Amino acid sequence: MIEIDNLVKHYGPKKAVNGISFTVNDDEILGFLGPNGAGKTTTMNIITGYLSSTSGTVKVNGHDILEEPELAKKDIGYLPEQPPLYLDMTVLEYLNFMCDLKKVKKQDRKRMLAEIMAMVKITDVADRLIGNLSKGYKQRVGIAQALIGNPKILILDEPTVGLDPSQVLEIRKLVKSLAKNHSVIISSHILSEIQAVCDRVVIINNGKVAAIDTISDLSKRLSGSSKLLMTIRGIGKDAAGRIGVIPGVNEVKIRRSDGDIHELEISISNEAKSDLRETIFFTMAQAGFPMLEFRSCDPTLEEVFLSITG
Amino acid sequence: MNNTKNNKIKDKRAFNLKLLSIGSVIILLVIILASNILFDKLLGKPLTFDFSMFGRYSITQKTQEVIDKIPEGTTVRIVGLYDVPDNLENSVLEYTKPLLDAYDAYGGDRLTVEYIDPKTYPSIISQLDPSGANDLKENVYVVKYGDNLKVINPKKDCFNFDSQAAMYGYEILTANLVEYTFTNAVNNLLTGFTKHAYFITGLQEDNSTQIKAVLSSMGCDSKDLPVSDDLTIPEDCDILFLNGINTDIPERLQTQLVSYIEGGGNVIIAVNYYANTTEPYEKLNTALDKINIKIDSYVIQENNADYVLGSNNFQYLVDVADDFKDFSSKDQLYSGFARPVRTTDSAVSYVSTYPVLTTSDKASAVVLTDDGQLDLVNEGQYNVGMFATFNEGDVRPQVYVFGTTDLTSDDFISNYSFSHQNVEFIRSCFRNMLNIAAADEVDVPAVAIEDFSIDSERAASSSVTVMALIFVAVIPLALIIVATVVYTRRKHL
Amino acid sequence: MQAIFKREFLSYFRNPTGYVAIALFSFISGVFFIMQVSQGQVEIASEVTSLRSFFIVIVPIVTMGLFSEDRKRGTDVIYYANPITMFDVVMGKFLAAMSLFFIMFINVFIHMIATKILGGKVGVGSWGTVIVFFFLAALFVAIGCLASAITDSQIISAIVCFVFILIIQLISTLSSLLNTAVTTLLTKMNVGSEQASSIGSALENGINWLDPFTKTKDFRYGSFSVAPLIFCISMAIFFLYLTYRLLEKKRWSQS
Fold it and tell me: Any chain C CB within 8 A of the CB of A66?
């Protein structure tokens, strides 16, 4: 568990991080979302003890990163944006070195390395030089080094950046499987990724937390209204007019028209007490406009993100 | 701008860390410098250990005693009239400087060692030698006590050299006399000289620097007495030296010598055969006739292989006669190109003569004839040195006559240095003549020079070439090849 | 510390660097040794003393990549984000470089044995120079560490280290130049010439006090002193501490 309280980091006059607070619970995947330059990497560097904060505290399982760095760092596995790999070492040499660093006991080492390498699927490149590996493999070696010593918390900074789609999927699967017994903080500017793997998301912008919530709650809370999409055959304006007068409907827009087929977007106020879909269906049936498609549509994370950071 | 300032003030943690960082670096630097300066001053010298071969950077007990003798409140100054070069390597100062540092360390206020370059401090010359009598120049040491001073040449006075090598332009040190020279200089300045030796000059080519150094360690100073028509042997003469003469003495000296001996004087005569093989020394022999001694104009050839030194029959060991056994720790001395010294036929009754150094009974005297041939004279035992004194009356002159120069010449002493049995022997002769106890002497041993030469036979063998090849070529090349192999193999992993 | 030491030390042998440094040292020391053999006199002390002038080349080769390469490749994160202190990192790397020097020095030990076989002598002064060699190496490697920590370019760190060692090697020359300059200046300012030169030489002596070569020169003659060794080691500690502080600075630096 990580408790981050009012973290501030200045670079000269620039405030890279300006009062960030959040908590990472055990065994959850926390998405860390923000545009480039929002302060994601800086925050992660502070959490891992790489940088010291200007003010604020980071507590890793109760240990302050500045006051008890060794105890705090013990529980963290960190994969920076650029994996810290020695290109002149083989994978096995490198991982053994990381074992030395994290003081993994000799008798556990072989088993642990075998497990980790199998988990991240690098067993077949164990004796190859890291410098000769593909980007995807390098990334996996980076994840492997973060896993060494079995830390309770994994911090992954943009783990899928620069990978091809199938590699991205594999890494995501891996991260999800890790969540069973790790807390994971994963940063990304790719929203679909966060959406795909995370339980909760922290959105930061300009060094500040813009939102923290579960993904579904966040989208609901944020939009303040839900939307319905409908396709009918008939007179668009007439249909819009008929729906617009239904109580609880805020606004009706014709998004697209193709001959007599129209796509309508209906904004429904949250205050509506009943499900308006039935009422709309019957209104259209009455008017004799056949419904070709009718569905409700929650805002995507993209939209949430844009509206928050926009 | 204002904003920037505010932010910086707010960033207390970074400010504190910066302060800690810079502050601790400065504090550490100060602590390190201060403790090093302190350590250097307080414990630098006590915590210096002389592990050198022969302890050549430590002063001996004898020197410490001499320094202890310096009266409280007075100071002996040792001043080197030059800048100490940074690199002492390959200069004799490599031996001198560290040892003088040891003098300085032991001496405290009583004895100081300074280095003052007269080029930057011209006044030092007149300060040390107000009268200008010593004609001080750069690059010498001056030992000064009260108004008296002694000039020491850092090279000639402080080291023995191999004279043979010097002829070929090499400079091979054979002994380190730094402590010997300086301690004697200090001692001589402290006590003054009580004895005086006079060296007759003008009858030989060689100097007597080395033997004079031996005398000075016994509190006896040495003066030259050039031969001339009005030569007079001074009243205060304790030893008269005719060292390494190769020319007969003039008439004036002959009469002076006789009266000096008859007055109870001490004389040492050493003739040089090598420089003048045919000189009969008629006048000298006339004088010596008064004490029943004659120097023959032969040269002794040793035929007993046990005595011969090296491959040359003219250089050999001589036995020390029984009466003089306690003069030297060894029973045999070195001798070379010696004339026989024998008793005369016209024995004077009040004179007793004793052989001092004798050859084996298989030696023969040889004459070098005019056409360069060797003419064997007689086989038997010959004397290389003899001693004469009077056996009645009040006066007891002591006269040593040596047919060889191997006991007194600069060449010999320089090659073999002061610890050699020949020097030990002549020292005993002086001691008897000057009537001094061994304890009064400042007998600082000469220090041998470290010898790093390798076995020339092994060094010349072909295995050295192989070794050279291995060290210079094989090892470095092998490493480069390994580097290439490792690099290319790892590159393709 | 052990982990860092092990990685760094082995890294010398995973790359050509270590081999090249040892090969260079072997060649130079071999030439010195053979030259002495050919002259019939072998004094190991003189060989080791001459070898010290090659610190200026070998130390930068050995130390240039120690910290700069980590910074360049981003691998320094490993040291900041793992449960080890920066002190461990600095000491580990320093000791790795020192160990490489120890391996190089095996050459000289072989030469000592060869000298014995050739009937020569390995005097106490030779051992003195060996002791001095390692203490000076510690000082210069510490300087090399510092030079490597200030930049992320190996070349720049090598040049900085080279210049630093060059200055130390020239301390006595520089100080005497300064002496002359100050003396001339003061004389021109109407200070008495003897007074001027005493100020000048006081300055010279003060600077010369910092010269580790002058301090340790008596070792080769068999006169061993503790103070110069303490000087070397404490200055090495200072430079290592400076390196440590420089690396720590990255945590809180504002730029």
Answer: no
CB-hemisphere CA count at 13 Å for A111? Answer: 6
Q: Which residues of C touch B87 (CB under 8 A)?
A: 217
What does the pLDDT average to over B305-313? 82
Of all residues in chain A, the one with the smallest CA distance to B6 is A13
Q: Which CATH topology does B53-192 take? A: Glutaredoxin (3.40.30)
Residue C19 contacts B, CB cutoff 8 Å:
yes
Residue C30 to residue C52: CA distance in whole angstroms: 14
Partners of residue B493 on adjacent β-strands: none
3-state SS track over A158-218: CCCCCCCHHHHHHHHHHHHHHCCCCEEEEEECCHHHHHHHCCEEEEEECCEEEEEEEHHHH
In C, which residues are within 8 Å of A86 by CB distance? 7, 11, 73, 75
Residues of chain A found within 8 Å of residue B10, distances taken between Cβ atoms: 10, 54-55
Whether CATH 3.30.465.10 fits A2-220? no
User: What SS3 class is residue A266?
Assistant: strand
Higher pLDDT, A252 or A97: A97
* pLDDT surpasses 90 at C120: no
- Residue from the list A49, A86, A98 with its beta carbon closest to the beta carbon of C80: A49
What mean pLDDT, rounded, does chain B reach?
84
Measured in whole angstroms, the distance separating CA B363 from the mean position of its chain's CA atoms is 33
Question: How far are the Cα atoms of A106, A253, B265, B353 from residue B282, in angstroms, in the given order?
Answer: 101, 151, 21, 20
Burial tier of B27 (Cβ tally within 10 Å: 0-12, 13-18, 19+)? exposed
User: Could you give the angle at which helices B2-10 and B12-43 cross, rounded to 10 degrees?
Assistant: 60
Q: Which of A8, A10, A58, A92 to mutate to test binding with chain B, by most B CBs within 10 Å of its CB? A: A10
Q: Which tokens in the block code for residue A89?
A: 């070492």
Report residue B440 as tokens. 């009064």
Q: Is C13 on the interface with A (CB under 8 A)?
A: no
**Topology given in CATH for the domain delimited by B193-448:** Rossmann fold (3.40.50)
Which chains touch B (3+ CB pairs under 8 A)? A, C
Tell me which of A193-207, A291-305, B283-297, C209-223 is least confident.
A291-305
B475-491 and C16-38 are packed helices; what angle lies between their axes, rounded to 10 degrees?
170
pLDDT of residue C235: 94
| Statement: A224-309 belongs to CATH 3.30.70.1340 | yes
- CA-closest candidate to residue C1, choices C229, C244, C252: C244
- Give me the residue spans of the domains in chain A: 2-220, 224-309
State the distance between the two ends of chain B, measured CA to CA, in whole angstroms.
Answer: 55
CB contact under 8 A, C251 and A11: no
Which residues of chain C does B121 touch, with a Cβ-Cβ cutoff of 8 Å? Answer: 194, 197
3-class secondary structure, A84? coil
**B383-390 and B159-161 as β-strands: parallel, antiparallel, unpaired?**
unpaired
Nearest by CB to A10, which of B11, B490, B493?
B11
Residue B450 Ramachandran class (φ > 0 left, ψ -120 to 50 alpha, else beta): beta
Question: Over the stretch B188-210, which tens digit does the pLDDT of each residue have?
Answer: 888 887 789 999 998 888 888 88
pTM of the predicted structure, to 2 decimals: 0.74
Mean pLDDT of chain A: 84
pLDDT class of C20 with cuts at 50, 70, 90: very high
